[in-house]
Specification:
Layout (H helix, E strand, L loop, with lengths): L1 E2 L4 E2 L6 H10 L6 H11 L3 H6 L2 H13 L2 H20 L5 H11 L5 H10 L5 E10 L2 E9 L8 E2 L2 E12 L5 E13 L4 H13 L3 H13 L5 H17 L4 H14 L4 H17 L3 H12 L6 H28 L4 H15 L1 H19 L6 H13 L5 H11 L7 H7 L4 H12 L3
Antiparallel strand pairs: 1-2, 3-4, 4-6, 5-6, 6-7
């Protein structure tokens, strides 16, 4: 038993084509034939759909014309099975869609049938309002209503409440094509409760931006319903977890979710820190720090969460420092080459890393001054340390001051930068400005 807009039709799939011919032979109104096809599409009876599609029936006739009767059953059965399988796929792959598009240029209506299937969910109510003959074709205009918002088809950022479809059949009553008439569209719209239901549907479909767009204006005007608040908070959370970028929008989504549902805080913060741990384990240090940085905005006063965040920062900072050491050791990179990219982020993340970088900088300067000369880059290292707050170990300060006594009073290599100064005195001054840990 299959339901259509006006009556119930009980029709075994194998009898579909014979029924169409019988309807025409008995002088029935032309639009009674497409009802069988529409009922089959709505009930996903794709065997009947194949039997009532003109292009496919013509291809079946061609198969029979090219083969002896002994092969008809197998060849036609394989053909029908292929079409039924294709129609049964709700989300066909790229190459199938590409092939179907090419066949559509030759008249294969599978794209039209897929579109019609989306417009005919089980809860839809339809009726043929008008049918007319146009030469050898029968044109029917089908009005479709969607009383159940949970199954209403999506049209951009809206949900259809009703639409009109133009259905074309040939003189045999077999389906040729279908197209939706955009001028016949009407959409669901209403107050706070209905907006919540619409947003919930888009949330379920994973269209998070659309769900948020339906509810944010109500929130701004203080008209958000209880259900709407729950849906909007869920949309914010899912958008954070699915597309946490750009950073400022991600933070805004977290604030929005927590303002609506404060109880989500632990869930969200645990997600951020777990995600950061995963990225750190995969060697994606900067991505890990991105998640930690966002979480840190919201975990102030949460001792356990703050400790987890700092552990992640320490681990990332340690990696930066080790990477810098490896570059300096294996590739002989100067200190200032690795400082901005690797050491500066490490210093900002961890006090442990800050002390380690101070040791590295002091050791680098000690090696540089061992020959009794000072270079522009040595003063630049001191400037960098002062700028980012790096301090030297106490013992290193004493050693650097002692090495400074070997510096000639005027060193040509740095005259352009500092002018005519007493370089020993300048060195001592700047080392003391950096200071000790």
């Amino acid at each position: 038993m299959r339901r259509d807009g006006n009556f119930a039709v009980s029709l075994p799939p194998a009898a579909a084509l014979a029924a169409v011919i019988g309807l025409l032979a008995c002088g029935q109104q032309p639009h009674k034939v497409p009802r069988v096809f529409l009922s089959a599409v709505q009930s996903r009876d794709f065997q009947t759909v194949v039997d009532l599609t003109a292009f496919w029936q013509d291809e079946i006739a061609d198969i029979k014309a090219r083969n002896p009767k002994a092969l008809w059953e197998e060849a036609v059965g394989a053909y029908r099975k292929g079409k039924i399988t294709a129609l049964s796929e709700s989300k066909p792959g790229y190459w199938r869609e590409y092939g179907e598009a090419l066949r559509g240029l030759m008249g294969d209506p599978i794209g039209d049938i897929r579109g019609l299937s989306r417009l005919l969910p089980g809860s839809a109510r339809w009726t043929i309002n008008e049918a007319r003959a146009n030469g050898s074709r029968i044109i029917c205009y089908v009005a479709i209503d969607y009383p159940d918002i949970s199954e209403a088809p999506v049209a951009g950022s809206q949900l259809l409440r009703r639409t009109i479809v133009e259905l074309v059949c040939d003189s045999r009553g077999l389906f040729v094509s279908a197209r939706q008439l955009q001028d016949g569209n009407a959409f669901w719209a209403g107050g706070a409760e209905l907006s919540a239901a619409i947003a919930k549907r888009f949330l379920q479909l994973g269209q998070l931006d659309v769900a948020v767009a339906h509810l944010e204006p109500l929130r701004a005007n203080g008209k958000l319903s209880t259900e709407g608040a729950s849906v909007l908070a869920a949309a914010y959370c899912q958008r954070v977890m699915n597309q946490c970028a750009p950073e400022e929008r991600c933070k805004a989504d977290v604030r929005g979710a927590l303002a609506l549902e404060p109880g989500l805080k632990m869930q969200l913060m645990n997600w951020f820190l777990s995600r950061a741990g995963e990225k750190l384990g995969a060697g994606e240090d900067l991505t890990a720090l991105y998640y930690v940085r966002i979480a840190s905005v919201f975990i102030s006063g949460e001792v356990d969460l703050e400790a987890r965040a700092q552990n992640l920062k320490d681990a990332a900072a340690d990696r930066f420092v080790k990477r810098a050491e490896r570059r300096m050791r294996e590739y002989n990179h100067p200190f200032l080459t690795v400082a901005p990219e690797l050491l500066e982020p490490a210093v900002g993340l961890s006090e442990v890393a800050r002390r380690k970088v101070g040791q590295m900088a002091a050791a680098y300067l000690s090696r540089s001054l061992a020959g009794g000369r000072v270079y522009t880059s040595d003063f630049q290292v001191l400037e960098w340390c002062k700028k980012v707050g790096v301090r030297f170990p106490s013992a290193s300060v004493s050693e650097l001051l002692k090495l400074g006594h070997r510096i000639p009073e005027h060193e040509p290599a740095v005259l352009d930068m500092w002018g005519k100064v007493n370089l020993r005195a300048e060195w001592e001054k700047r080392v003391r400005e950096v200071g000790s840990q």
